[in-house]
Amino acid sequence: MAEGAVAELAVIGAGVGGCALAAQLRRLGWSGSVHLLEAGRGPGGRAATRRSRRDAGLHINHGAPLFNCTGSTPPALLQPLREGGWLEPWSGTICCLDGEGRIGSAIGDGFSDGSLYRGHGGMEQLCCGLLQIATEATLHSGALVRQLQPLPGGGWRLLGNNDELLLECHWLVLSGTLLAHPRGPALFGWPEVPLQAAAAQASDPQLQRACAALAAIDSQASSNLLLTLPAESAGPWRAQPFQLLQCNPAAQARWGLRRVSIQPLEDGRCAVVAESSTSFAAEAQGIYGSRSSAAQLLGAHANPQAEDAAMDTLEQALQAALGLPTAGADRQLMRWGAAFPQPPGLPPELSLCAASQIGFCGDAIAGPGFGRVEGALRSAEALAGQLLLHLGSELS
Ligand SMILES: Cc1cc2nc3c(=O)[nH]c(=O)nc-3n(C[C@H](O)[C@H](O)[C@H](O)COP(=O)(O)OP(=O)(O)OC[C@H]3O[C@@H](n4cnc5c(N)ncnc54)[C@H](O)[C@@H]3O)c2cc1C
Fold first, then answer.
1. Measured in angstroms, how far is the CA atom of residue 20 from the centroid of ligand 1?
2. What's the mean pLDDT in 44-54?
3. What is the arrangement of strands in the sheet containing 257-264, beginning at the earlier edge strand?
4. What is the CATH number of domain 7-48+126-217+343-395?
5. CB of 19 shorter than 6 A to ligand 1
C-alpha cells in the first residue's frame, strides 16, 4: 500500500471468516480496497493445509479435515465455490470407535450431519477460492496485528509486534478472537487485551459490550498428532473402511483421542491426524508444536522434550486403539489453543459496532453453524450485508 494511504476496510485474519467476508462484499458489488492481515504463513486459519517446501507431495489438513452444512438453506458462498472447483462433496466414510475398541456406525457429534464438503486438493482451497472471489483483495501473510488504535476522526491504526505501523483503515473487522480475549496476554505476556485497550479509548457502549462478550468466550483446545506414514506402512491405514473415525466419550476417556482422520497422499504415503480429547489437550496446556504459529510467529515457548512426550502418548494411544503400525512415520505436534469456541459466543447484534467502525465475524459469532466452518461462512455473509450499508454511504 502507498505510504499514507488509508484502506477502506482491513480484516484481521484470513481464515474462513475473514476470506468469506471479503468475497461476499465483492459479490454484493462493493469495490473498495480490502486488506487482510494474517499472522500465519497463508490463508486458512483452522481450515488450513500444512505443506512442505522440501516435500511437494505432502499436504495435511491439520485443522478441520472437512465441514458440514446443516441449515435448510446453504451459505450463499457455497455455490460459487463449488462452481469454481474449489470445493467438492466429502464422500468418505465416517465410523465411531467405542471404549472397548469396537468400530461401529457414526454418531452425532455436530460435525458429521447435513451435507459434507472439503476443499478440492486440500482444505486451504476453501480460503483460496474465497480470495479468488474477493477480486483484488490484498492478503498480507505473516502480519501479526498486535495493537489497535482508534483514530481521532474515525477509523483505525494497526500496529505490529514491534510497534511498527502495519496499516490505517476506515473500517476494521476482527475475524479471530485472539486480540479480544485474555488468552492473548496469558500466552504471550502482553500487558493488556488489545481490543479492550482500544475500546477504553473509543467510548462506545456497544463496543464495550462486544468486548465483554468476546472476552467471556471459553474455548476447548486440541493437541493434534500429525503422522506421515511412508508407503511401506501406509497400506493398512489406506485400507481401513473409514476415513474419519470419531471416538465416543468412553473411547476419548480411554485413549485421549477425539477423532482420527486418514488422509491418503497421491504417492502411496498416508497422512493421519489424531485429534486429542479435550482433557488430553487441557493436560498438555503450554506444549506447543515447535512449528505451530503460536511458537513461530508469536513467540510462545517451545519445549521439545514435553512435545516429544505428548507425541509419544498420542502415537501409543493410536496404536493401542486401532492396532495399526506407525513405524517410520514422520511426526509433528500441532496445538490449537482455541480449537472449538463454546456457546454462547458473540450475540449477532454486537457483530457490527457502527459508531466505532468495527465489526466481528468468524465461528465465535452466535448463530447457526457456531464453532464450525459453516458458522464462519454464515457470520461473514451476514456482516457483509450490514457493512455494505455503511461502506456505501460513507465512501461513495
Ligand atoms: C482440529 C480441528 C478440527 C476441526 N474440525 C472441524 C470439522 O470437522 N468441521 C467444521 O465445520 N469445523 C471444524 N473445525 C472448526 C473450524 O476449523 C473453524 O470453525 C473455522 O475454520 C473457523 O474459521 P474462522 O475464520 O472463524 O477462524 P480462524 O480459522 O481461527 O481464522 C482466524 C485467523 O485470524 C488470524 N489471526 C488471529 N489473530 C490475528 C492477529 N492478531 N493478527 C493477524 N492474524 C490474526 C489467525 O492466524 C487465523 O488464521 C475444526 C477445528 C480444529 C482446530
1. 13
2. 95
3. 103-105, 94-97, 244-247, 257-264, 270-276, 219-229, 330-341
4. 3.50.50.60
5. no
**Residue holding cell 488489545?**
194
pLDDT in tens, 315-357: 999 999 999 999 999 999 999 999 999 999 999 999 999 999 9
Dist CA 132 CA 127 (whole Å): 9
Q: Over the stretch 88-128, which tens digit does the pLDDT of each residue have?
A: 999 999 999 999 999 999 999 999 999 999 999 999 999 99
How far apart CA 107 and CA 96 sit, in angstroms, is: 7
pTM above 0.90, yes or no: yes
Copy the grid coordinates of residue 356: 466505532
Q: Which helix (H) or strand (E) holds 388?
A: helix 373-395
- Domain chopping of the chain, boundaries: 7-48+126-217+343-395, 55-74+84-122+219-341
Cβ–ligand 1 distance for 275 under 6 Å, the answer: yes
| Local structure of residue 302 (DSSP, 8 states) | P
DSSP 124-160: HHHHHHHHHHSTTPEEEET----EEEE-TTS-EEEE-
Architecture of domain 55-74+84-122+219-341: Alpha-Beta Complex (3.90)
Written as nine digits, the cell of 82 is 463449488
CA–centroid distance, 176 to ligand 1, in Å, is 8
